Amino acid sequence: MQTDLLILLIPLLPLIGFIINGIGFRKVPTGLVGIIATLGPLAAFGCVLLLFSGFSTISELGNSSPVRMVLFDWITVGHFNIPFSFQIDQLSLIMLLIVTGVGSLIHIYSIGYMKHDDGYGKFMAFLNLFLFFMLLLVMGSNYVIMFIGWEGVGLCSYLLIGFWNKNTNYNNAARKAFVMNRIGDLGFLLGIFMIMGAFGSVEYHEVFEQASGFPIGDPTVVAITMLLFVGAMGKSAQIPLYTWLPDAMAGPTPVSALIHAATMVTAGIYMVVRSNVLYTLSPITLEIIGGIAIATALLAASIGLVQNDIKKVLAYSTVSQLGYMFLGLSVMGYTSGMFHVMTHAFFKALLFLGAGSVIHAMADEQDIRKMGGLRKYLPITYWTFLIATIAISGIPPFAGFFSKDEILMHVYEHNKLLWVLGVIGSAMTSFYMFRLLFLTFFGRFRGTEHTREHLHESPATMTVPLLVLAVLSVIGGFFNVPEALGGSANLAEFLDPIFELSRKVSPHSFDETLLTHSEEFMLMGISSGVAIVAMIVAYVMYIQRVNLPEADTVERPVVEKVLYNKYYIDELYENIIVKPTRGLSDAFYSFGEFIIDGVVNGTGWAVKQTSGQLRRLQTGSIGFYVFAMVASIAVILWLRFFIRF
């Protein structure tokens, strides 16, 4: 009973915060808004910790079965039933810890960042609503509950990206995110319909048990996994549905940290890991995922090399890191993909919140060309940002090194070419992140004197979350240390029951690593060395030689110009998709206006004119009426006679 109550409270507590602040956002005192909004996620995090400790104890006793809680039977049609139910297992617990833990820190940060905004209460309510839907997505015991959360976070993303709705560009960014996510969601929905038809259920345990009896490469399973991955491409920003994510930086910085770093964009990763049995049965889908993932990682990383908006650099970094996560999944390194989800939540949330602290100090300036020398004005922000930069670059012993290295090791075992490309992407990551760090915090200050006078460190509500995330970015990698370094891979052991059916379906895919310790050390050395070399190159270019980025008006070399304009992919979409669609819509509008409206209005006009003429027959003359009656009878008799014969 206590477990059921804890499970129920986890999504309910943020929902209560949304209801209070959402209904009374104009009436709740400003001082209470942040407290109400933050208490829900913090209390939910406490509930998750209690569940986690209890679940770990049960697992140690040899019972690792999921805990299911059915709230009510929601849809019943004949023998087909969809309950509104939750499932708590190892995978959902890891995601719940990330969502509620990092989410709570971002709520606290938002108090300092958004407190003076006119829509402060509404903003905090939207954050709570987002957290509620994200928890539904993670906790649902079937694909339909996951889809409710999936759509809910999409809605909240739209509301939060376009929060400052008086700016047309922000509204356009929100609309773009909404539309591109709907494209992916259509694929996800079709995948769910196929699951219903193939398995007669949407409950995870029933679907996966039945699927484990299918042969590898079954066409139905391949179709289902491809459709589900289309949904993941939209939510987790993979080619070709990735262009919404960089534009989504239009929203307030806490939105970027919560939605586009720690939670929403990892929903696609979670869905694939949750459906690991289906993907293990479909090697062709995994190969396609691997190709798209490495292409996304390299494309986004190359664009990030030359961007000058502090949040845009981090946005393309997120797209690239999501590519790495999918790359790990594509070689059935499901644990390594989830490990990178966890460490990425720490250091990427820290990077976005650090960027927000910089923007806050710079009076909303986001162009790194107008920054420089900020480390002496923002010491806490600088040191935490440095830690996050080292972590994301994959330099030991920080968190990103362990998770990224584990992905690259799995890739090396399966495909050497993908590994080489992955290492190149890792080098680019290190370069553009240290470029960002050096241009922002080192050298001379390049802003206005007025801005310099007002530079100051952020308040404690913003710096405390930075410090907590910095600690996690340092120690987060030690949750899954490889055996070669004397570790015990605790995360892999904890998540092991999730992949039991996949191991049954394809035992050889889950054999122990074929790499020797010396090979592992070699791979670690190469990936770390490449990252350090890239850091040194960035140091030489931007610290020693003071090679500052050019103004937008300066003509650039062709390659740099292509990268700076993001390969012109937005322009390509505009010309081959948006404009033709808009033109077709205008044509349909014109057709409706001139043809359909013409027919409808013409019919009305004809009836009106005809009735006007027929009205003249009402003369009041009895003789005319008798004549009309006789003539009508004659016509009726003639028609009757004609029809009979």
Quick take:
This protein has helices spanning 2-23, 30-60, 90-114, 120-139, 143-161, 168-199, 204-211, 219-235, 244-247, 253-262, 267-274, 276-280, 283-304, 310-330, 334-361, 379-393, 399-414, 416-441, 449-453, 460-475, 490-495, 500-505, 517-544, 558-564, 569-614, 622-644; strands at 67-77, 80-88.
Plain-language structure description:
- The protein has 645 residues and is mainly α.
- Among the domains are: 222 residues, no CATH class; 73 residues.
- It is built from 26 helices and two strands.
- The protein has a two-stranded antiparallel ribbon.
- β1 and β2 form a beta hairpin.
- α3 runs parallel beside α15, α6 packs antiparallel against α8 and α15 packs antiparallel against α20.
- The protein is globular.
- The protein starts with a helix and ends with a helix.
CA-CA gap between termini: 85 Å
Question: What is the ordering of alpha helices and beta strands?
Answer: HHEEHHHHHHHHHHHHHHHHHHHHHHHH
- How would you sum up the major sheet? 2 strands, antiparallel
Mean pLDDT: 89
Shape: globular
The chain-level structural class is: mainly alpha
Total DSSP E strands: 2
Helical residue percent band = over 70%
The gyration radius over C-alpha positions equals: 30 Å
Low-confidence stretches: none
Task: Order the strands across the largest sheet as they lie in space.
Answer: 1-2
Instruction: Give the count of helical stretches.
Output: 26
Q: Hey, roughly how much beta strand do the residues contain?
A: under 5%
Key attributes of the depicted protein:
single chain; mainly alpha; two-stranded antiparallel ribbon; 645 residues
